[in-house]
Amino acid sequence: xxxxxxxxxxxxxxxxxxxxxxxxxxxxxxxxxxxxxxxxxxxxxxxxxxxxxxxxxxxxxxxxxxxxxxxxxxxxxxxxxxxxxxxxxxxxxxxxxxxxxxxxxxxxxxxxxxxxxxxxxxxxxxxxxxxxxxxxxxxxxxxxxxxxxxxxxxxxxxxxxxxxxxxxxxxxxxxxxxxxxxxxxxxxxxxxxxxxxxxxxxxxxxxxxxxxxxxxxxxxxxxxxxxxxxxxxxxxxxxxxxxxxxxxxxxxxxxxxxxxxxxxxxxxxxxxxxxxxxxxxxxxxxxxxxxxxxxxxxxxxxxxxxxxxxxxxxxxxxxxxxxxxxxxxxxxxxxxxxxxxxxxxxxxxxxxxxxxxxxxxxxxxxxxxxxxxxxxxxxxxxxxxxxxxxxxxxxxxxxxxxxxxxxxxxxxxxxxxxxxxxxxxxxxxxxxxxxxxxxxxxxxxxxxxxxxxxxxxxxxxxxxxxxxxxxxxxxxxxxxxxxxxxxxxxxxxxxxxxxxxxxxxxxxxxxxxxxxxxxxxxxxxxxxxxxxxxxxxxxxxxxxxxxxxxxxxxxxxxxxxxxxxxxxxxxxxxxxxxxxxxxxxxxxxxxxxxxxxxxxxxxxxxxxxxxxxxxxxxxxxxxxxxxxxxxxxxxxxxxxxxxxxxxxxxxxxxxxxxxxxxxxxxxxxxxxxxxxxxxxxxxxxxxxxxxxxxxxxxxxxxxxxxxxxxxxxxxxxxxxxxxxxxxxxxxxxxxxxxxxxxxxxxxxxxxxxxxxxxxxxxxxxxxxxxxxxxxxxxxxxxxxxxxxxxxxxxxxxxxxxxxxxxxxxxxxxxxx
Length: 816
Known about the structure:
By secondary structure, the chain is mainly beta. A hairpin with a 2-residue loop joins strand 21 (509-521) and strand 22 (524-535). The longest helix has 13 residues, at 292-304. The chain has a 22-stranded antiparallel beta barrel. A five-stranded mixed β-sheet has the order 1-6-7-4-5. Residues 278-291, 324-330 and 451-455 have low confidence and may be disordered. The radius of gyration is 28 Å and the shape is globular. It is built from ten helices and 35 strands. Helices cover 9% and strands 47% of the residues.
């Protein structure tokens, strides 16, 4: 039975007018990956995710795509209730995940698979049914409802190369509760980082000069790989009788997770043949190849500014200038330094509701929800060059918090209308509040150079949020909907939905959806839908102020500022008020059930999205009209910024594709059961229109080519009568392309094989062992010259993990 995409009780997957997948929670629990984001990718070919190793918060709050659309164009529900977003706004720049740039979405990674009963993936536009964000579809995560018993599980694993060691322990406990249940899941996870790069040439040169032991990460310079992860998760689900006719229900969670990732390597000043990056910026170069000439120019500038050179350089009586060690923290980092960037994430949610009414009469449901997601950033092993020798090495650049609340009133009433089934009339209203808060970083993280001779816009790698960036930004919206569905005749089902939504920030919106399913003959049905949709820009997107460091086409680190749409910097460069994205979706498909244990589904879809949100980016060069405009607008550190971005409605796009699924479950008499499942997704995205001065040709190319156009998943699950189960799964990722810094790279298709075996022992015990990416398949090598210079050996755009093979062993016990 499904509950997503329809408000009629008793519908099964093959009876739906919209394409939908239903996955049992056991499919996720048996996998080795501790991240639900990866677990969904392994079973649903329309769902894609990438791992970005050096990309600010996106390195640990991973974006995911449904049908090649941004993460925030998929609505995520838990137990049918809207899930709050992460506080992270994805601000990746080239070359890090431009497909997802600008999105603010739900973090799947904090939801433990041990808490999941099933997941329903509605692959169809559903804004008229559920509201904003449901352009690509809806993912509804249903929590376990066990009223009795306990399951304990412990898992240990590692990559074939011996890094990425991970440990996970979880427990699920169910109790009967006043005619219902109380179910709680607790999980602890500890995963170490991985490293899949090579030594940067400049790091090798520095190592020869100062010794390998003084260059970060064993003389590699920087690390390309997964972050360190540590955290605990607690999820609760409950339902009980409030009276003879009313049920009380609710769910909630408490999650604390910590992450640490790597940034780019900062080379020191004073090593011949190596250009310093991210430490000092001066106009004078050594005339005779000796760094003391540069020291003299800095000393002169500091003295002119009335500053003490001792706070910025290291005194040396034998030096002509009186100073050496041009790096402000040379004595601390003689071989340069690589900042470590991380976050402490806290996530809380509570949903509570009452529902009642008979199945054949008016059913009602009233609920309230409140959720928060807080991201507190951490920066270690870095400096604020503006503070020179006085700079601390560790910073807390600021805190982001997303808060959401809502009240829902929902009614369903089956009306006798002379059709083959009652007309299912559903209607309701919703109130939503959304608040985004930016907290101030510690003072050392945002102090800037008063002279401009030093590269200084705060803590190096990620600037802290100054007082003028902090603030609280909110929005309130109201909506009402009507949803109709009925079997007009026994073989024809028709549905229609409309929704009106109004907010205090944007104009009102009206959406509709039509759906039909015709049973042509007993084993064959045709289905089709047409709908409109929308997604309103979030307060986080329109108010984000962020200064970070990224690499340019030469590999040089430059400061990049992202500013609120209404800020002086954005307005000076042409920013205007952003508007909601709007979509038009159609699907058409055929469902065949030639036998009770066999289903064949094929669906075509087309999604047109207008006014898509993106970051308009401007390169700022000294004396350029853009820089002069920033200076005239009074933008702080305007002469230091080398790139400025802000959100805008940038382009229109169309996604065309088809999806197929064949599922069969066979009884093998005395040999047990075999379930075979084959799924395929083909998807092509076209950028139809670009607003001048917004996204560039490289971003357009990546949107159209960076995700594989074809994905296939083949799986065989054998359940033997001898207490042994085996899962064999093959994931095929079609080839893909990306364009970075003017260079186009092409990567071939890959086949990833997973094998998992489970032994069931007496007394409710289980032992499972398996390998994900059994044959250690890797993507083609990185081809971009800039990224190769920076030490990357695998493509950053890879749709699957570049870590290679991973093994794990898991022990579990069930108690009744």
